[in-house]
Amino acid sequence: MKKTMLMVMAVVISAGFVFAQDAQIPDFKMSPQLVKADGSLSKLEKPTIEVKSKTKGFSYGASSVTFLNILGGHSPIKIDPKDAKFIIKLNDAETDPEGILYITKVIVSKDTRELELAQSAAVGAMMFGGGKGKSVQRDDIKAEFTKVAPGVYKFVPSTPLTPGTEWGIVLPGNIAFCFSTTGDAKGKK
Predict the structure, then answer these.
(1) Which position among 28, 87, 167, 181 has the lowest Cβ density within 10 Å, counted as fewest Cβ atoms?
(2) Higher pLDDT pick, 135 / 119
(3) What is the pTM of this model?
(4) Nearest to 44 by CA among 91, 104, 87
């Protein structure tokens, strides 16, 4: 009888741990959230952004860059790089998350941040035969996804995030959710 009772208690306790480990489902679609160590969810920064463009270079070598200008020099959301675990609920359960979001480094520029979207040859360069646009060289990181429910995916960066840097999770429509990593970036003193 004692063995049976101990076995039942062990099963109940184990089941409790299994259910406690289940991922919470975000309330809103297309709004990635941080998954904390205790399994609770926390919002990421959804900054005010503007789509802008500027010309880089001069004459035939010039190119036009389109970027997101993110207001505010640093994200108030700080994450230890090893704790970068996220979850998202998609609009459609049949959508492949790899095709709609990416994680990328955001460049701090005084009191704003910039995230390059596209780069192409300027009009003058195109008119004189130099019209091959240059590819944007962002620091994109692929995410590894795990399905937790229909249309709901946990994801982590496939490579470690650099400490002391700003990051964005970019969704269709140039919507960015931002955070920064704790620690010191290499080369900064």
Answers:
(1) 28
(2) 119
(3) 0.76
(4) 87
